[in-house]
Amino acid sequence: MKSRLFVAGNWKMNLDKNQALQLVREIEKNKEAFENVDVAIFPPFTLLSAVNDLLTGEVCHLGGQNCHDELVGAHTGEISASMLRDVGCDYVILGHSERRANQLETNEQVKKKVAIAAESNLTSIICVGETLDERNLGQALSVVEKQLIGSIPVDVDYNKLIVAYEPVGAIGTGKTATINDIAEIHAHIRIILSGLSLKGDNICILYGGSVKPVNAADIFQITDVGGALVGGASLLSRDFISILHAGAAIK
Ligand code: PGA
Question: Is the CB of 232 under 6 A from ligand 1?
Fold first, then answer.
């Protein structure tokens, strides 16, 4: 039997305030249907407060899409983990491949952010995943292993960690990884996590990359898949709710 699934909606840099509030109202309206799934949404920073005001906190939780690796200071344009906590967040996405590629975030930086997030009582969703070129070169397992080991602080509270495997070629492309590839990498991630800590057996490992209503149920069935990190499909209430239904149906 699977433990309770976790589905995260990463809105990235999308939606205005009206669209955001409408989407949250739809999710909250349907919450009885998926109360055995843990749900979190990750709006842009400017919408966190307004979205938090609408959430009852019973089913759907709130998270930030990034945070700085220090708590306060002269860092123009940055947001700290404690600020996310202050505005109602329980989670933060760290090391997303878009940030690793566009902001050149390193494992070392992600590791510092994970540590500071845990200090602020936030659970980190640490993203790892190979590029298409790395996969074609047969390096997927080694790349993911290096990112994972490099991004987890040695003495972090493992109860404050979630891992998301997101192959870069599957993000926003509609080209979901195959069931075999997802199963292989998730099993490998589980072995690494279990090797790092006794609590590694229990860390939730999400899959992300073009998760849609049409493929969610099959992905959720895979051993060691503990849920999904959903981008594009989390912006449409019908699609996101349908993915949540698929998660709720998994036993
Ligand atoms: P996608 O994005 O579902 O649009 O592929 C996933 C992600 O980047 O977290």
Answer: yes
